[in-house]
Every structure is written in C-alpha cells, then in structure tokens.
Amino acid sequence: MRTVIIEDEKPASRKLERMLAEFPDIELVAKIESVEEGIFWFSENEHPQLIFSDIVLGDGLSFDIFEKVPTKGFIIYTTAFDQYTLKAFKLNSIDYLLKPILDEDLGAAIEKFKSFIPSDNSVNSHEIKQLIKKDKTTLSRILVKIGYNLKIVQTHEVSCFYSENKIVYLQTQERAFPSDFTLDELEDILDDRKFFRVNRQFIINSDYIKNIHTSPNYKVELEFQPKEEITVSRDRVKDFKDWLVS
C-alpha cells in the first residue's frame, strides 16, 4: 500500500515512520511538511492509497490540501485536537487518531482501512458512511486563532455559538472568537446534553441560562450571559422544553 505522511513536526514524523515500518505491506513514498508542499506534491504525483495527515500545519490546515487537490486515497488524521472530527470525515477520512499515537490504535486504524478495500481496490461507500456515523464523537475543545496565535477553548467555557455576517462565533466570558464551523456542523458534534439549537442563529449552553420567560403566545425568551436575551424560535419551543428536563 503506497502511503504518504503529512506532518510538520519532524520528531512526530520520524516516530510515525518508525511505527509504519512494522507493517511490511506499507510503502512510504513521501513525507510532506506543509500545505504548500502538499498541494504541489498531490498535483504532480500519483495519489497513494493511504495518507497519514496531521491537521494543524505551520501554514494552515491539511484540509486545505485536499480541498484544492481532491484525492481518492483514504486519510487517517493524526492530531492533538479533536475539534476537526466532522470535517475530517467529510474529506475521505476513515479514522482519527489523537496524539500521542499508540501502537494498538495505529494497528486498528490500518486494519480498518484494509477492511474497506476489497481485492479489486473498489470502495464500499455505504459501509464508509456507516463507519462515519458509528465513530461520531462529541466536541470537547476548539482551536481558535487570535492574530498569529492559537488558543484552545474548552467547550464548557462556551456560553453560546452564534452566526453573524456568515461567520460562526463562539462566545466565552472573555470575548467572542470566530470559528471554522457552521451551526449545522456544531449541532452534530456538540454534546446535546449541554447544547441546544434554539433558533437559526444560536446554539446555547444550558449552564449559562439565567432565567426563562414565557408568554401566552408561546414565546420563550432566555436571559443569557453574556448575551442579553435570546428568543427560542416557536417551532423549537416544545423540543427546548423537553431538552431542559431530559
């Protein structure tokens, strides 16, 4: 199996190369260290069957490579951050390994890849979709950019996510940060015991609700910190009340 590593940290790249050397049927054909290098390599070379890719690289996210140069190869993402699970699975990912990578996790990921590649190298897309659905995880932390710096925000620190001018922000007690998510994506990966989509613009964290006001016309309004007031859309009121007591 022709394989490529995308990793900008040399020690991590060398460690993964040593781990892959234990699998005799894997042939490492390239090691890539940046988005720019990746776009060039995948534009000029035959794509491998399997790609091991870190997500956060020095000049961007590895997703940028495959959005510019779509690949039919399968990707096993290796990263210290769990916030990109949903987007990873939309871009040919069959597994998602959190660093530090354990030998048994790597072996299981490779066996999973082999199980989805029949002898004729065709792909069973239905089974891949079922795997994605089964492996869905909830988001526990988010990586945000502040200028040229990166900051980790724990989801329990987020009072709400909201859409404004086609950008989705996460609000903390400190400030609002832009994110790379859509509200629809966040609905799929946030812990639904804590977070609820109250309308088209807001997903709220129950821990930050101060008061709930109702009126005879079935309108429900939330006193919310740090946002002053958020209205639950009328078609979501029943689900919202059920969620509060679930």
From TrEMBL:
SUPFAM superfamilies: CheY-like
Residues recorded with modification 4-aspartylphosphate: 54
Superkingdom of origin: Bacteria
InterPro entries for this protein: CheY-like_superfamily, LytR-like, LytTR_DNA-bd_dom, Sig_transdc_resp-reg_receiver
UniProt entry tagged with the keyword Glycoprotein: no
Keywords noted in UniProt: Phosphoprotein
MF term (GO), any: DNA binding
Pfam families reported for this sequence: LytTR, Response_reg
Start and end residues of each HTH LytTR-type domain: 142-246
PROSITE patterns registered for this protein in UniProt: HTH_LYTTR, RESPONSE_REGULATORY
Response regulatory domain ranges (all copies): 2-114
Record flagged with keyword Phosphoprotein: yes
Record protein name field: Response regulator transcription factor
Organism encoding this protein: Chryseobacterium cheonjiense
